[in-house]
Amino acid sequence: MREYNADLHFHGPYSGGVSKNMLLPVIAEQAQLKGLHICSTADILHNEWLKHVKQNLKEEENGIFGIEGREIKFIVGTELQDVNRVHHLVYLPDIASAENLRERLLKFGNLDGYGNGRPRLKTNAEQTAEIVKDCNGIMGPAHAFTPYFSIYAHFDSMLSCYGKMLSEIYFMELGLSADSYFADLIADNHNYQFITASDSHSPYPHRIGREFTRIKMKEPDFKSLRHALREREEALITLNAGLDPREGKYHLSACNKCYTKFSMLEAEAFKWKCPKCKATIKKGVRDRIFELANYKEENHPKFRPPYMHILSLAEIIQISLAAKIVQAPEVQTLWRNFVDAFGNEINAVIDAPLEELAKVHSETAKNIESFRKGYVIYIPGGGGQYGTPVICKSKEEMAQKQKELEKEISGKSEFSGQKTLGEF
Ligand SMILES: [Zn+2]
Ligand SMILES: [Zn+2]
Question: What percent of the chain has pLDDT over 90?
């Protein structure tokens, strides 16, 4: 057994709003530079993408899928949407199972054409899970708490969503706006392994692998993945890594047009209509979780691994260079210098010695040091707008900036008690 860093959720160009460059050779290259070992094939039910997968991936022995010239392996999978607008992640043992599932689902929705990489099905979660099981696949909720397309947007419990298929569900994806601290406040969630994944729509290094799951596996294949998810007492998921939930787009309740943030009380008083622009206030992941929470304090099942809040190297470099956008050429060039020096991004951000990092760029090394010490505050996201990390030089500066931030944001009293950066 060894540990693998896996990003098991992103999309190809046939899902809406995805970069034309999200092709397997590019994904494989970027994922490897990030420090990932396993990716999902994504969008496997789409006819054109399926062709692309068959052209680019080669099945090695034992159902392991590789790509020429790279170490990275792929697990066959997709995301799909059910009739209740809940998104689910699906993983399958091989291409034949995917083709079989495709056949079975053809009559329940358009699987092909532009925008259907993540197909919208006419079946509910229970029916879908049954068909997936028939095709030897596994399924679980995607980004379980987001306000538009998730189980907890439309249901109050896993049982009410999955019905008699509940016993076949072993995992849920947390999504960018939640972490284990928040998700485990709901007792029901103690029955599931958590997957952290990027849901990336572009191959930029601050997107792909921005969340990943570290999994102990015999082989980098479906069988070992299913085993790790199903046999949770063996604690084979060893790390969830991802954004601080405050960086996620839907963390706080906020207007989906002008992004003004509201506390639950305020939002209810305004009947979920923004008083400034009359658009809808979208309930944030934090508020939805507090609504359903059974625990008031941090509480986890024994098998739950630590959750590491990470910042992407490109974002740290952007801050260090005071660049306007993370895609700026000077940011991307320096990112490449770091990755070339340390093998991959995860190694540079989490493990590499600071003196060595300083030889590449001293300001970035200082910011990585501050990040490792946890000196980061966040202007929280909401309503579809990402949050923004602010790296501080010291504990004192962090406390000062946090205070200023709380003064600025409506609903401030609810911020103060929230757990900040770090593992548990
Ligand atoms: Zn989704
Ligand atoms: Zn508004």
Answer: 91
Query: Amino acid identity of 9?
Result: H
Cβ contacts of residue 396 below 8 Å, gap of 6+? none
The pLDDT confidence band at residue 409, using thresholds 50, 70 and 90, is low
Burial class (CB in 10 A: 0-12, 13-18, 19+), 66: middle
d(CA 274, CA 255): 6
- Tell me the CA–centroid distance for residue 365 and ligand 1, in Å: 35
Q: Can you tell me the distance from the alpha carbon of 376 to that of 397, in angstroms, rounded to the nearest whole number?
A: 10
pLDDT value of residue 203: 87
**Which residue, among 276, 245, 243, 271, has the nearest Cα to 259 in the 3D structure?**
276
Nearest ligand atom owner, CA of 267: 2
Q: Which ligand has the shortest distance to the CA of 43?
A: 1
Report the mean per-residue pLDDT for the chain.
Answer: 93
CA of 277 to the centre of ligand 2 (A): 4
Q: How close is the Cα of 256 to the center of ligand 2, in Å?
A: 7
State the pLDDT at residue 423: 29
Give the integer Cα–Cα distance in Å for 1 and 218. 4
- Ligand 2 centroid to Cα of residue 204, in Å, is 30
Query: For the chain, which residues make up each domain, given as ranges?
Result: 2-246, 313-415
pLDDT at 286 (0 to 100): 94
Question: Distance (Å, rounded) from C-alpha 191 to C-alpha 169?
Answer: 9
User: Architecture of 2-246 per CATH?
Assistant: Alpha-Beta Barrel (3.20)
Share of the chain above pLDDT 70, in %: 96
Q: How far is the CA of 81 from the centre of ligand 2 (A)?
A: 28
How far is the centre of ligand 1, averaged over its atoms, from the C-alpha of 53 (Å)?
Answer: 21
Note the ligand closest to the C-alpha atom of 89: 1
CA of 386 relative to ligand 2 center, distance in Å: 16
Give this prediction's pTM: 0.92
